[in-house]
């Protein structure tokens, strides 16, 4: 099989496309990039109209070529929000998103042409790249895999050419949890996973197929270094790109168990995602997305809970590095217990401006 260069992750590739080289000397280079994004909208019927920072970030990337196709890279990303749950999804979350800078990514890597990249630090896992169809500016996506951590060792292979126009790559990850043991605090013990990435170009029609599997383990609360909650997740994703259009479907399941809970936790969560977009003009696109999460609990508590999001939006490039967008989403919930079920509905919408640099 002919080897081709490994592609950078989506986040790094996006940053590199707009990054500015601030230092270059012999085989060393430092780039700075990122974007600022502000959105004005109504994000819950339980809230007033609000102005929010939408994941603005500054990216720093340094690399040094060591020769013979080998290079070392360093990457750091600063964000200006530190909420653990999505501020758009949780109406009770802190809504002051214009905060002090926080470290969102910080990793070091070695990359060899034709083989791949191994990286160490605070970063995404390769499971994060399995999801293909999150085309929204906010509220989009529902990747059920373990997607990142503070202490991650990640390997992403080169994309190997299977035949003309077809490539296959793979990834593997291990995440270190809290080093302390025998505590009553429920912290991450470890997580690990593997992923596959296929791309085929058939006379201008491009097919992407991804798959991933992850296991996440947490401490129990019994001071004996035992495992409490364990999440086993898998996901498959597909997308077709053709004539300015993209259409994709994804499906995944997560089995959650925790025998240390008073009411033994045993949940099976199912995730669906369908995304479509069309490039109406060279400077404008329209997009839509549907995602669903179904939680089925085999306990005396929650039996069935379903959450759907229907998203539609459009964007327009005002200038080369300036994009305006508008987006509307409807959220529907069906929350069921043995005693009965309740249904609710909410609308979330906003207009925003993103400036790349």
Automatic annotation (TrEMBL):
CDD domains, per the entry: gram_neg_porins (cd00342)
Subcellular localization, as worded in the UniProt entry: Cell outer membrane
Highest rank taxon of the organism: Bacteria
Gene Ontology biological process terms in this record: monoatomic ion transport
Residue ranges of every copy of the Porin domain listed in the record: 7-334
Chief location bin: membrane
Record protein name field: Porin
Any coiled-coil regions, as ranges: none
Record-linked PANTHER family: OUTER MEMBRANE PORIN F-RELATED (PTHR34501:SF2), PROTEIN YDDL-RELATED (PTHR34501)
Pfam families for the chain: Porin_4
Molecular function terms from GO: porin activity
Keywords, comma-separated and alphabetical: Cell outer membrane, Ion transport, Membrane, Porin, Signal, Transmembrane, Transmembrane beta strand, Transport
Annotated signal sequence range: 1-19
UniProt membrane topology term: Multi-pass membrane protein
């Amino acid at each position: 099989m002919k080897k081709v260069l490994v592609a950078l992750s989506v986040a790094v590739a996006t940053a590199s496309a707009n990054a500015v080289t601030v230092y270059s000397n012999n085989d060393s280079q430092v780039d700075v990039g990122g974007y600022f994004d502000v959105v004005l909208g109504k994000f819950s019927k339980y809230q007033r109209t609000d102005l929010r920072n939408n994941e603005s970030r500054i990216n720093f990337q340094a690399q040094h070529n060591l020769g013979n196709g080998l290079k070392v890279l360093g990457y750091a990303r600063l964000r200006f929000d530190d909420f653990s749950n999505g501020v758009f999804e949780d109406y009770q979350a802190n809504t002051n998103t214009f905060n002090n800078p926080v470290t969102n990514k910080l990793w070091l890597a070695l990359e060899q042409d034709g083989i791949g990249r191994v990286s160490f630090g605070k970063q995404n896992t390769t499971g994060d790249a399995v999801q293909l169809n999150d085309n929204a500016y906010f509220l989009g996506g529902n990747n059920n895999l373990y997607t990142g951590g503070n202490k991650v060792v990640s390997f992403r292979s080169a994309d190997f050419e299977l035949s003309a126009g077809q490539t296959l790559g793979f990834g593997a990850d291990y995440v270190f949890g809290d080093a302390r043991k025998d505590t009553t605090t429920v912290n991450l013990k470890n997580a690990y996973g593997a992923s596959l990435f296929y791309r085929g170009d058939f006379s201008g029609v491009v097919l992407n197929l991804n798959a991933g599997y992850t296991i996440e383990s947490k401490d129990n609360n019994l001071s004996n270094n035992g495992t409490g909650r364990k999440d086993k997740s898998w996901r498959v994703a597909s997308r077709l790109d053709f004539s300015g259009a993209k259409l994709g479907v994804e499906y995944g399941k997560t089995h959650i168990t925790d025998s240390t809970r008073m009411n033994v936790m045993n949940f099976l969560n199912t995730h669906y995602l369908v995304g479509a977009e069309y490039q109406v003009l060279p400077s404008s696109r329209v997009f839509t997305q549907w995602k669903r999460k179904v939680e089925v609990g085999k306990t005396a508590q929650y039996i069935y809970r379903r959450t759907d999001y229907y998203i539609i939006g459009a964007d327009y490039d005002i200038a080369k590095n300036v994009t305006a967008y508008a987006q509307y989403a409807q959220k529907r919930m069906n929350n069921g217990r043995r005693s009965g079920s309740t249904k609710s509905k909410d609308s979330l919408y906003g207009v925003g401006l993103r400036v790349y640099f």
